[in-house]
Design a protein that fits this description.
Layout lengths: L1 E5 L8 H9 L4 E5 L4 H11 L4 E4 L3 H4 L3 H10 L4 E4 L16 E3 L2
Parallel strand pairs: 1-2, 1-4, 2-3, 4-5
C-alpha cells in the first residue's frame, strides 16, 4: 500500500507510531519536503527499505495554499493517508475517499 504520511514540523514521531506504520506494511511512503514528522518518517522508510517519494511544496506559486495543494496533488498517487499529530490536517476525512489512519 502506498501511503501519504502527514504530520507537524514540530512533531517527533514516536516508537509507537513507527510500529503502527510498520504494521500497515507500506510498499511506498510519500512525505512532504518538510522538517519534523516528514523527516522522521523519511528516515524510518529508508532504514526499513521502503521506497520514499518526496512531495515538493511550491511556495512561490501557491503561497498560503502550498501545503494543501501538494497534498491534493498526491492523493491520486497513494492508497491511504496517515495523519500524525501536529499537522494542520485540513479535515481530510471529507475530501479523501481512501483509507485514512488518523493518529493525530
Amino acid at each position: 500500500m502506498k501511503l501519504l504520511v502527514l504530520g507537524g514540523v514540530d512533531h517527533n514521531v514516536s516508537d509507537k507510531e513507527f510500529r503502527l506504520l510498520k504494521n500497515l506494511d507500506p510498499s511506498e511512503i510519500h512525505v512532504l519536503m518538510m522538517a519534523g514528522a516528514s523527516r522522521d518518517v523519511r528516515r524510518w522508510a529508508q532504514e526499513n527499505n521502503v521506497p520514499v517519494e518526496l512531495v515538493p511544496i511550491v511556495w512561490h506559486e501557491y503561497k498560503d495554499r502550498a501545503v494543501l495543494t501538494a497534498i491534493h496533488k498526491t492523493f491520486q498517487d497513494v492508497d491511504g493517508v496517515v495523519l500524525l499529530p501536529g499537522g494542520n490536517n485540513y479535515d481530510l476525512t471529507e475530501e479523501f475517499e481512501k483509507p485514512l489512519y488518523d493518529w493525530s
